[in-house]
Every structure is written in C-alpha cells, then in structure tokens.
Amino acid sequence: MKSSSLADFSLLFVALIWGATFVVVQNAISFLEPLTFNAVRFTIAAILLAVWLLLFERKQLKTFNIKMLGAGLVLGFWLFIGYGFQTLGLAYTTSSKAAFITGLSVVMVPLFTILLLRKRLSLHAYIGVVTATLGLYLLTMTDVSGLNLGDGLVFICAIGFALQILLTGKYTNQYPTLFLTVIQISTVAVLSTISSLLFENWKQALEPSILFTTEVTLALVITAVFATAIAYLIQTNFQKYTTPTRVALIFAMEPVFAAITGYIWAGDRLSLSAMVGCLLIFAGMIFAEIPANKGIKLRTKTDVRAKKGADSEV
C-alpha cells in the first residue's frame, strides 16, 4: 500500500474514533464540566505519551531544540483554541449549529493553504471541499436559526482546528513524531487546566464520587488513550504523507461517524437530509482523492498521437 493511501486510511480511522466517542463524551460532561474534563483528559494522554517516549523512544530526546519546542507549543495552542472555544460556544448555541460551524474548517484549511503557504490546489480539491461542506450543512443544520454569540465562539474554534491541521502538515517533516506530539498534547493539558481554574468548578475533578462514576471514568479512558494519545500520534505521524486539504476532508467524516454511532448506540434518528449529507461528505472526500494530474496525462497522450498523425501526413 502506498504511503499516501495508508495515511488516508489511518486518518480516517482517527475520524472514526472521534466520531464514535462523541456520545461517550456527552454523557461524561453532564457530570464533569467540559474544560475540567479536557484538562484531565489531555493530562492523562500527555503522561502516557511521555512515559512511552522515555521508555521506548529515548533517542528522540537528543533532537530537542527551541524550534521544536516552539512548533509543539504552536500546535498545542491552536488545538486548545479549537477545543476551548467549541466548549464555550456550546453553552450558547445548538449542537447541530456547532457541528456545522466546526466543520467549516474543511473550507478554512484550503483557504489558509492559499493565503499563508502560497500553494495552489487542484480542481478536484475545490470540488471536494464544496461537496463536503454542503454535506455538513445537510447533516447538521436541521434547525436553522439566527446567529448568536455561541456561533461566533465556535467559528473561532473552527479557525483553531484548521490552523492545527495546516501547521501539523508543516512541522511533521521537521521533527520526531512522538516528541512533537508530547509537547503538543502537554500544551493543551496546561492551557485547559488554567482555563478550568479560571472559569469552572475544577474541584469536581478531585471528587471521587464524580471522577469515578462509570460515565466519567469510561469517557476519560477512551478519550485520553484512543481519542487523544493515539489519535494525535497518528495524525502527527501520517499527515506528512498527504495534504492538509485532504486531511480536513477526511476529518469531515467525524460528524458522519458520530451520527452513525448515535443511531446505533443512542437510538438517534437520521433524517433523509442527514443521510444525504453523509453521502455528500463521503463523496467530497473520495473526489479529492482523484489524482490532479490524471486528466493532464490523458490529454498529453492524445496530443502526442495527434501530433504524430499530423507529422505523418506531412
């Protein structure tokens, strides 16, 4: 299997993990406040990754330098912005609108690629982005209403996720995967902890009656190990083999997997528009996988045959 194909399947697995854990997290934050939950989740993940680094990848420690630290801090900052503002926004807007606005990172990644990295995209990428965005709208926007403060906060969240994806693509070729992931996840843990101390009743995290409830414990184990430590390790490792735009389109499958798992586990009903939305998101992701130069190669062969025919006539 080609590296790019393996990368795409691995990142699709990450989107599956995130989508499948959505219901679990929703149950957990009814017991433990969101920022505090994130603080505990990312702290556990950071510790697990750090232990793995020290036990099995100690040689990566020799690569440490200020630039690497800066790269990890930047990635962690934008990832925290994504999670933090999404959490704050959900207090003022509906989950369906939040899901759609967060999904707009699919549009922002190619836009930032053009504006910040000065790179051109293929026509297939543009069509894939438009198709997936339309799919996100049909999947999530079942109750359209006016914009509010929460929508603005979630929009900032989308910018954070988009920049994290874009910059991950930039830094993954420069630094060791595991060490960079440890710095990134540790940054989110620290910033989430500070935010919970400032804005929430963080003492809940110290109460055994809350922390060791089945819902919270299960959610922390699943999200810290699979949806954080493993997921971001996979992203950091494999994104170097693909493009940020394709990553954004693959991650747009997260609400699709969330809808499917919600239907299976929580008995949520999928409307016709939601099912069409799922199909459009999948179609957008597949369309973006079509090689940009395929049509060019076909035209080139045709042009060569035409030129040979013209030469023989002469």
UniProtKB/TrEMBL annotation:
Residue ranges of every copy of the EamA domain listed in the record: 7-140, 149-287
Q: Which UniProt keywords apply?
A: Cell membrane, Membrane, Transmembrane, Transmembrane helix
- Topology relative to the membrane: Multi-pass membrane protein
Q: Which Pfam families match?
A: EamA (PF00892)
Coarsely, its chief localization is membrane
Keyword Cell membrane carried by entry: yes
Subcellular location field: Cell membrane
Q: What residue intervals traverse the membrane?
A: 9-29, 35-56, 68-92, 98-116, 123-140, 152-171, 178-198, 210-234, 246-266, 272-292
Which family, according to the similarity comment?
A: Belongs to the EamA transporter family.
Name the UniProt record assigns to this protein:
DMT family transporter
